[in-house]
Amino acid sequence: MRSITDLIDRFARRGDPLADRARAMIERRADVRARQLHTTKGYILRDLNWAALTPVLRALLTPEARCLDCGCPFVDATGITIDHLEPPRYFQDWAREHARNIAFVCRSCNAMKQRKTLAIWLEERAPTIGNTWEQLPLDLVPELSPVERAELSRARADLTGPKTGRFGPPGGWVGSSRNDVG
Question: For residues 86-107, b (16+ Cβ closer than 10 Å) or e, as one string?
Answer without folding.
Answer: eeeeeeeeeebbeeebbbbbbe
